[in-house]
Specification:
Number of domains: 1
Strand content: 25-35%
Helix content: under 10%
Distance between the termini: 11 Å
Structural class: mainly beta
Largest sheet: 3 strands, antiparallel
């Protein structure tokens, strides 16, 4: 155990191209933040936002081919330090 939260972002998995026919549609994972997999082509993005009085925040994103945010989770950088 790391002693702090650990996040993984997986974008455009190999089974995504199959869309709704993908086995990933019904795949469960107790550690997943969202309830569903993204089943279309996508890419991962991390935005780093600095707030002078609140510290640094990370926006962990999955975006579609046009750049629209499909999933997002925000994390304070200080929460990742041990």
């Amino acid at each position: 155990m790391a002693g702090y939260p650990l996040y993984e972002i997986t974008s455009s998995g190999l089974n995504s191209a199959m869309g709704k026919q993908s086995q990933g549609k019904t795949e469960t994972n107790q550690f997943r933040i969202t309830d569903n997999n993204v089943l279309i082509n996508n890419f991962g993005n991390i935005q780093i936002i600095q707030h002078n009085n609140k510290g640094t925040k990370l926006k962990l994103q999955i975006r579609d081919e046009k750049g629209l945010v499909l999933q997002q989770h925000e994390v304070l950088l200080d929460s990742l330090r041990h």
